[in-house]
Amino acid sequence: MSESTGRAEKAQFFAYLVTLAYGEKDEPTLAQVVFLSPKEGEDTRMVAKALLENAKNTAPQTPRFDWSTLKVQGSQTLNDKELTKLVDAASQGQVGVGRVSRLKLSPD
Question: Whole-angstrom Cα distance, residue 106 to residue 108?
Fold first, then answer.
């Protein structure tokens, strides 16, 4: 029996604040969401690929987008139907990634 068998191990991940753009090309809707990745140093290209491949991942999977943190146009949230539509569009490559910023999380 290994030392870790009797205790839960903390998953190591890195958090990023990601700016998304979707909707009309001339006047896109901007939103921000937290992206959790097992990799340090994610960039826009890597996050865009993760959005396409992992938009529907849920906890405890990583990488994943924490859709509960989504804020549209600064402070608005989406209802379940709108969020499902956005996640589906993201997994089909219809949502762009504009900016990726590393978040520093402090322990509780």
Answer: 6
Number of Cβ within 10 Å of residue 40's Cβ equals 9
Provide the token pair at 27. Answer: 């006047």
Q: How far apart are CA 6 and CA 25, in angstroms?
A: 52
How would you classify the pairing of strands 96-103 and 64-72?
unpaired
Each of the 108 residues of the chain gets a pLDDT tens digit; together they read 444 433 334 558 899 999 999 998 899 999 999 999 999 999 999 999 999 999 999 988 999 999 999 999 999 999 999 999 999 999 999 999 999 999 987 776
Distance CA 12, CA 20 (A): 25
- Global pTM reads 0.84
